[in-house]
């Protein structure tokens, strides 16, 4: 047995379903591309199972994204909110104009 104490599993959230839909891939197509069965893809998308590190890397390679863009320990927000978030007040274009508006 490993000397590492095993506690409760921490959740692993993912964007597999969103990314797969974006690329118009079926679960069966993604499963074939990463070498697992279609039920495994469904279980991953639902969060019923967590991928091995190897499988996570294979999935990320299909989407051409880093692991952090596909998997996270915290829930993902809406992609649109991340992509189109408003800049902080100190990042606004008028802040470089010396207070002019």
UniProtKB/TrEMBL annotation:
Matching Pfam families: HTH_3
Source domain of life: Bacteria
Family annotation (InterPro entries): Cro/C1-type_HTH, Lambda_DNA-bd_dom_sf
Span of domain HTH cro/C1-type: 19-70
Bias type Basic and acidic residues, positions: 83-93
Region (Disordered): 82-101
UniProt GO MF annotations: DNA binding
Keywords from the named record: DNA-binding
PANTHER family in UniProt: DNA-BIDING PHAGE PROTEIN, TRACRIPTIONAL REGULATORY PROTEIN-RELATED-RELATED
Name of the protein: Helix-turn-helix transcriptional regulator
Species in which this protein is naturally found: Gordonia aquimaris
């Amino acid at each position: 047995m490993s000397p590492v104490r095993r506690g409760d599993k921490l959740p692993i959230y993912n964007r597999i379903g969103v990314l797969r839909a974006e690329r118009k891939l079926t679960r069966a197509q993604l499963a074939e591309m990463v070498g697992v069965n279609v039920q495994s893809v469904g279980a991953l998308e639902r969060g019923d199972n967590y991928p091995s590190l190897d499988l996570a890397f294979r999935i990320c390679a299909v989407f051409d994204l880093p692991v952090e863009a596909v998997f996270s320990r915290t829930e993902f927000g809406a992609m649109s909110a991340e992509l189109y978030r408003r800049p902080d007040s100190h990042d606004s274009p008028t802040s470089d104009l010396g207070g002019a508006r």
